[in-house]
Write the structure tokens for this entry.
Amino acid sequence: MKGKALFAVGVAVGYVWGSKSWPEVYRRLRGGTEKVLNNPDVQQNVHQATEAVQESVPDILDNLYDAGKKLLEKVETLFPGISAPKSGQDSNSKPTVTTVPTVTSDVISDPALDDSTGADWTDEGGAAPEGPATNTRPRS
């Protein structure tokens, strides 16, 4: 459904942009869209769909929670002790948080051998006065 809606939007955008009289086409499309969206029947259906989704979300969440619990129980029967605390850990202890040490910034971003103007950079992959430092012949 989402793909069809995106396709329809793409067709509409392509039609508007491809038209020579695009401002008039845009106004007609916008007017038609506003008529549809402001239609009381459409608004009623939108409100009904919103209410249905809001009513079903808690049930869906409960079902997902129950399914997760059942999955965990099955995993524990297949792999006994998988949810037991690791050796040296207390079952009531909180997980430890480790911090990553800060990295010092690279102050020398290009350690060139010779960075003076007009220097030959061919040994560093740069260009020479004759052209690029590659093994290709220059274009004639």
Notes: The chain has three helices and two strands. The beta strands are 127-128, 131-132. Residues 35 and 42 are 10 Å apart (CA to CA). The first strand starts at residue 127 and ends at 128.
